[in-house]
Amino acid sequence: MNKIEVCFSPTLFPHSDSADKIVVVVDILRATSVICTMFKNGVKEIFPVRDLEEAQAYKQKGFLVVAERNGQKLDFADFGNSPFYFTPETVGGKTVVYSTTNGTNAITVGRNASVVTIGAFLNFSAIAKFLMEQQKDVLILCAGWKGKFCLEDTLFAGALSAKLIERGMFDTKCDSVYAAMDLWAVAKDSMDTYIEKVAQKHRLKKLGLDDVIGYCFSFDVTGLVPVLDGNRLVCR
Amino acid sequence: MNKIEVCFSPTLFPHSDSADKIVVVVDILRATSVICTMFKNGVKEIFPVRDLEEAQAYKQKGFLVVAERNGQKLDFADFGNSPFYFTPETVGGKTVVYSTTNGTNAITVGRNASVVTIGAFLNFSAIAKFLMEQQKDVLILCAGWKGKFCLEDTLFAGALSAKLIERGMFDTKCDSVYAAMDLWAVAKDSMDTYIEKVAQKHRLKKLGLDDVIGYCFSFDVTGLVPVLDGNRLVCR
Hints:
Radius of gyration of chain A: 16 Å
Oligomer: homodimer
Order of helices and strands of chain A: EEHEHEEHEHEHEHEHHHHEE
Number of helices of chain A: 10
Number of domains of chain A: 1
Distance between the termini of chain A: 25 Å
Helix content of chain A: 25-40%
Number of strands of chain A: 11
CATH superfamily of chain A: ComB-like
Strand order of the largest sheet of chain A: 7-2-8-1-9
CATH class of chain A: Alpha Beta
Shape of chain A: globular
Structural class of chain A: alpha/beta
């Protein structure tokens, strides 16, 4: 029986042994939802970069750059971080360089795992199926907010853990998994009201960017599973 | 209105600004339950020390030393970490040097706060009353397990947050507080079964030390509130 763990922040990741595990990076609002959307709409590959200097250097070399900090698009970037920007017209067939406040940091932190993949409600059934096929232990890495715990990534971790455990192919001894599953059970039938507890919802609302929330909590908009291949995300 | 935050691990503590806050350190199984028990039974003061070398040096100077790692008493120590060891006969009027796997680390990490205090179910109403009197923002610091999230400290954080918010003197914008309160709401009426999810319960059971669990989840065994005064815990 394979094991599931949940890690609530990239800051906590060094406390987990990830060497022979599949790491699922989660940043529901908004990086992993954006990544799934880009692949759905035909992006060729995505280079997640942690540092803005690196993102700027790519821009100077002519790459399409998506860069955001604290929710807002940076001046030098081509796009900010709303999934709605990424249509077949804007990203189809292209290489994108991508840097965000939390999500790309989590991808970078998870890099030593045997496989790093991208999870969101948007590819929920696809990522669950992928994990069930791999027969490896799974570590769900929540991007959180500037190192802190966040609810929306935890709810996804709970939904995914519950699905994998219900199928009888995974179990857990991880307190974080139980917490995430219990929170998902509390929230799942009333997401419209539960979302009011989510600090990131209010941050996005202040910026006029909360129109993406309903979409980011939609299940199975795509059947694609982005995975890290060297320093770029590609799709299986 | 004062604010409440919860921090799920000492590793996450640097992400929070604690300078003008009251930090409530929580390690339900078992350090903060043990500390409350020692004060209930008349200990004069407790020196929490993080390093074993420091604890050993105190022992050589003739101090009464309580030291545990991974649940088990260390050879050089006078006592391990069960609250049942600490009767008026063993600790009444004495100075105790105390070092444990998680709890004393959390106390050390929290030291820069304006006030550091000790919370447990055993002094629940007393700590809640103390916090309501102080009119400062509160940060509940869960000791966790070797830097990881743990359920039992989170449940306490949820119970305490709910009590403070219900009284109308505190509010929150912290996802961790909402998560902790929701988990406490799930668990509180079925702690006997919910405890099976808690990894530390199973660790203690393996060592034959799980006889303390019912006691550590008992409310209001003492009305005392231990606070850090320099490098020692004393009682108010």
